[in-house]
Amino acid sequence: MKKLFGSLLLCFVFSLYQAQTYVQILGIAQDGGYPHLGCENKCCNLAWKNDSLKQYAVSLALVDPASKKWWLFEATPDIKYQLQYFKDLTKGEYSYLPAGIFITHAHIGHYTGLMQLGREVFNTKEIPVYVLTKLKTFLESNGPWSQLVSQKNIIVHRLNTDSILKLSSDIKIETFTVPHRDEFSETAGFKIMTGTKKYLFIPDIDKWEKWNRNIIKEVRSVDFALIDATFNEITELKNRKVSEVPHPFVSETISLFEKEDLSTRSKIVFIHFNHTNPIMWDKEIQNKIKTLGFKIAERGKKLD
Fold this sequence. Notes:
Number of strands: 14
Largest sheet: 7 strands, mixed
Strand order of the largest sheet: 6-5-4-3-2-1-14
Number of helices: 10
Distance between the termini: 34 Å
Strand content: 15-25%
Helix content: 25-40%
Shape: globular
CATH architecture: 4-Layer Sandwich
Number of domains: 1
CATH topology: Metallo-beta-lactamase, Chain A
CATH class: Alpha Beta
């Protein structure tokens, strides 16, 4: 009887573990992906010649095994590959399409995948898309996105700044804004809160000091912080002014957190790498960053 009870208890605990909500990384690159259009330098030649090195634009899946639902963060130009990739990762246990899509802003690597949901391709039915106010107006007022709305391929839901959206009794999404190049929309960041974990997601921001929140405190308050790592150092930018594409260099973020303890540094997962960023392919640089306690986003990695 004791053995039977022990086995049942073990099965119950295992089933609870299996049912925990988690985040899975579906893409790690900056908007143009990797390799990058027109780049024939050493950085991209590696990937042009080796398909295994190619990377999709930054995207996450929020997965709830208990309800068999999942949500997509960012509708990238690689969305058709990422939806199939998620299906393969989860062995077809979930709906091919997500229960909703959260988008940070109107730069091409984050929203243009929505076009694949139109009648020319998948012709979806009323997929919820969650965005801040200006992006909602942009999608509803400009083609081809407005056709997705009029044809009810998508239903655009407005998110309010510094608000919390409840997806289930255990899953909540906090939305906030961050400073970025806001040509067509404001830029959102998200804090994903599950019953057991908290995830910070800021793939794009100009500089940490421009934000009205303290990034160190924000990282301390979560279990995983997936944050902007577009460029490693200023030396990567050969033909562009830093002022045109401001981002916190990975070297700056590392310096900012160098006095924090290992438990805080290990929460940071660098993501959204530009094709020039050697962190994507240089093992020596990767090892140096990991030795300091930081993590580097990997496609397919489950964060739970």
